[in-house]
Structure formats: C-alpha cells, structure tokens
Specification:
- The radius of gyration is 19 Å and the shape is elongated.
- The chain has four helices and two strands; from the N terminus they run ααββαα.
- It has a two-stranded antiparallel ribbon.
- It is mostly helical.
C-alpha cells in the first residue's frame, strides 16, 4: 500500500506542475510559477538524497538488492529507501528534462510579460 502511495505521489509531482503552469499560470505569482517549474526535479533529487542519507543513517546492510535492518523506531523504512533510490531513474530521464523545459518556458513568459508591461 505504501508503494502505491509513493508512486501516486511521484506521478503527482511529475504531472501537477505542468498542468498547473499551463492552465492556471495567469493566477499565480512568478515565485509560485518558478517553484512549480522546479518541483519535479526537486522531488526526485530530494527523494534520492534522503534515501542515500537513510542508508547511511539507519545502517542498512545487505547485497545489491537486499536492504536489511532498515528500521527507524521499530518501523521498517526499506520501502522509503527503495522508493528514494528508484527516483534516480525517472529523475534523470523525465523530471530533469521536464523541469528544464518548465523553467525555460516560465523564464520566457516572465521576460515577455516584463517587456510588454507599461513603459516607465
């Protein structure tokens, strides 16, 4: 169940920012637009970094696929570590190009809006 929740969260982090920037961008401030543009890459990079930190912090041991004794206060955090390590794949091939495209698009729209504004 936790795995499905984490995958749904990943899909939301990848799909909500482009939809929000395409449909509701005129209602958002520029800081919110830039924040939404960076969100896909920030979510995947942050999840990966937290997983690497958790491996060291919780002393996860095992082979290449067997992460054993990943517990925090008696709870098994192996699914969280596995999800964080999985984030490097969509982060590299999906989230980074998507965030770059959204950042460039937002910057171009910002410059166009600034240039087409009233003369000072």
């Amino acid at each position: 169940m936790l795995t499905l929740f984490l995958l749904a969260l990943l899909l939301a982090a990848l799909l909500v920012p482009p939809l929000a920037l395409l449909r509701r961008a005129d209602r958002l401030g520029w800081a919110a637009r830039y924040g939404l543009a960076v969100l896909p890459a920030a979510y995947t990079w942050g999840g990966y970094r937290l997983a690497v930190l958790a491996i060291d912090w919780f002393a996860c041991q095992g082979g290449m696929k067997g992460l054993h004794t990943c517990t925090c206060a008696g709870l098994d955090v192996t699914p969280l570590v596995g999800h964080g390590l999985f984030l490097s794949i969509p982060g590299l091939f999906v989230a980074a190009p998507l965030a770059l495209w959204l950042l460039l698009d937002t910057a171009v729209r910002h410059l166009q809006a600034r240039d087409s504004g009233p003369a000072r």
